[in-house]
Amino acid sequence: MNIFSPNLFRQQFPLIESHDQSLIEKDDFMPSLIYFDNAATTQKPRQVIDCQQDYYRNFNANVHRASHQLSSKATFAFEKARSLVQGFIGAKSVKEIIWTKGATESINIVVQSLARNTLLPGDEIVLCVSEHHANIVPWQIVAEQTGAVIKVIPITEHGYIDIDEIENIISDKTKYVACAHISNVLGRINPIEQVIAKAKAVGAISVIDGTQAVAHFSVNVQSLDCDFYVFSAHKMYGPTGIGVLYGKKKHLESMPPYQGGGEMIKTVSFTQATTFNSLPFKFEAGTPNIAGVIAFAESINFLSPLLTDVSNSYGLFEKKLVNYCYQALANIAQVKFIVGGSPDIGVIAFTLTGHHNHDIAMSLDTHGIAIRSGHHCAMPLMTHLKIDGCLRVSLAAYNTVAEIDYFIDCLKNILLEGTIEQTNKQVKEEVLLELSAKEMVDIITLFSRTKGWDSRHREIMLLGKKLPRLDKALRDENTLISGCESLAWIKAEHSVQGLYSFTADSDAKIIRGLLVIVLAAFNNQTAQQIHQFDINDYFEKLGLMQHLSPSRGNGVLAIVEQIKIMAK
Ligand code: PMP
To answer: 478: exposed, middle or buried (C-beta count within 10 Å: 0-12, 13-18, 19+)?
Structure first.
């Protein structure tokens, strides 16, 4: 019997269900949300949300410390969650399960607590080129601290770790091998068994980043025989801010604590050496994320039966969705997948010839479709593939074939609009040259007439068309805005009256539009006015705050920062 039913599964996610509901009420064919950003974080099922609330409502107390019933109840649930995770990944002992904030913190613990104390100058750390920054930067930091050297395994043309290359790269000098079970951009199940075996053969420690794997199939750390395995709850229908460091007991026991504080000690004294608690508590200083742990257990209760079900109906449905979406994308002429072949899990990365990734993602957003564009925290992979970013569709089992159809239709329409635009470009450019960014608009009045993200997005795109192009010769590293994911350039001029005027350009249409909006606020202002200007308030007035809040890091902040640096 199949224990997975796509409809029933979908209905368990309140955020998605509420959008489905509004769709029925509006009698409208346009869905208000299609969430295709599951590799970033999954939505949460009702039972996980309820479980977290239940803790706060009914048994909120600190764990391990107090001798009262409430604390006992919280401690019981908290430690039961640990046993559940132990079973979920097949760890030998509950002591091998350390709670962390997430995969990032788990990796940092291994790096700073173990690698930093064992690496010697010239020792080698082996990573794969497709790693997430969370599995690169901590190693770069420790390499700097110890004099160790990082070696990189390439990927095959289909996006898998290149096993043939590991023979040349993993050697007697290798002390750590850290790689992802599945890359968050490529969606391929890496042959980590072979990587782990090779690491073992040379006496190196293996650290596996399982963040993108654990929601899709059962993992058994004992069969894998890896030294460490890390993951985050929020990518497996659980809460944010909680994750796991699995480590073999012998390693965890040899490691000094990562942080000091309450809970991780046995005795503390000013006259004698402080002694530390046993595993796993040695690594859990301070009050932990109790609600997160308890709700995480509920997400495992939710997911585990689906992963272990003999019919594999959940896995097969995920596979059906990814194949369908991959094929539909493959039928679009402009789509270029970043590596060959279809992915193993619902993570599909591609670019669109002649279009900027951000423009496509923002346009899809106006249709309620959430996909991701950019470097996906894998800049070395982008460099390796000679791209500056890509689009990523990442699916979960609550997604549907109908959603994929709608996404493909929208994408085709966006591409078609782009083609019509190209044809008319010549005519338009002549008209546009008459408009300067300064004269153009009272931006606030313009936006006050618009309603909804869809029409505001259209206005931004129209404004972008009015921005005069910056001379190609001026688009260089001196004018490049660093921190903006798209390429964007800005140049300042300073008049004798002390007023600044800026000219700017970008390769992304949406950024060109945003530049017009930003420049309208800063052009012909003094340095003092520029520094005092409240950009958040401005975006609030424009009704763009939730879409373009500078803190979202979509490049606006980088542009504003750059302007402030130039206006001295
Ligand atoms: N590794 C991979 C493969 C990931 O996809 C992510 C999250 N995008 C991380 C590590 C980091 O996870 P977290 O931000 O939850 O610590």
So the answer is: exposed
CA distance 136 to 383: 14
User: Between the CA atoms of 391, 395, 398 and 399, what dihedral angle is there, to the nearest 10 degrees?
Assistant: 60
The alpha carbon of residue 377 and the mean position of all alpha carbons in its chain are separated, in whole angstroms, by 7
Neighbouring-strand partners of residue 153: 128
Domain boundary assignment for the chain: 6-42+310-423, 97-289, 429-566
pTM: 0.89
Percent of the chain residues past pLDDT 70, beyond the cut: 93
Would the pLDDT of 438 be above 80?
Answer: no
What whole-number distance in Å separates Cα of residue 193 and Cα of residue 180?
Answer: 12
The CATH homologous superfamily of the domain defined by 6-42+310-423:
Aspartate Aminotransferase, domain 1 (3.90.1150.10)
Ligand 1 mean position, distance from CA 234 (Å): 10
**62-92 per-position pLDDT tens digit:** 999 778 999 999 999 999 999 999 999 999 9
The verdict on whether 390 is a catalytic residue reads no
Q: Per residue in 117-129, pLDDT tens? A: 999 999 999 999 9
Ligand 1 center from residue 250 Cα (angstroms)? 26
Q: Which residues line ligand 1 (CB under 6 A)?
A: 102-104, 132, 134-135, 180, 184, 209, 211-212, 232, 243, 377
Residue 455 has pLDDT above 60, yes or no: yes
The verdict on domain 429-566 having CATH code 3.90.1010.10 is yes
Helical H runs in 219-289? Answer: 221-224, 249-254
The rounded Å distance from CA 237 to ligand 1 centre is: 14
Q: Which atom belonging to ligand 1 lies closest to the Cα atom of 180?
A: 3
CATH topology of domain 97-289: Aspartate Aminotransferase; domain 2 (3.40.640)
Write the pLDDT tens digit of every residue in 304-322. Answer: 999 999 999 999 999 999 9
Say which residue, 507 or 242, is predicted with more confidence.
Answer: 242
Query: What is the C-alpha to C-alpha distance for residues 415 and 407, in angstroms, rounded to an integer?
Result: 12
